[in-house]
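Tokenised fold entry reproduced for everyone:
>
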Amino acid sequence: MPRKQRRSPPQSTPKAGKGVNTLRIIAGHWRGRKLSFPDQEGLRPTPDRVRETLFNWLQPSIEGSRCLDLFSGSGALALEALSRGAASATLIDSSKLAIDQLRLNLNLLKAENVQLIQASAPAWLEQQTEESGTYDLVFLDPPFRQDMLEKCCQRLEQGALLKDQALIYIEVEKELKNLPLPENWQILRQKDSGQIRSCLCQRNSSDLT
């Protein structure tokens, strides 16, 4: 009588290693692609629901835009913009771990026209001049409760880094009621989701005095 073969124990689904998370690109050229990002304190990618709302707001303005992603972290916002047709993106983050993973993800996607810079966003902004060029779209998602927002907004405006009618997306803690914005920035859209307040602003140079 043939000997019965012993069955191998069922194989469990491999899990991501400790310290690794994933995000999903929602739409565009890289729709559905999942990318890793480090499990690092303070690194909180914009949730899918919030990101979907934001890019519904931005959809008419993304194609061909030049983007700046300050405090880029996982890169979720800049990568989503590139996937949907942005012409270029500059990603700034102070974390070497985040920058190294972003470099891997950009290579994986074969992304073009992307500049990746490891630097403190406020310090980088201080170094920019009119010769640095201007941006159509800025993502500004500073660490919560560290009072970085006002300095970054003022430097973006004073450093001549924004085109007229540029759009600036700001993500802050919900309890921050009054955003410290330059006088010529207008809030177009605003929404609270969980502990996050999302604001889409537009720069209008004609209001400058």
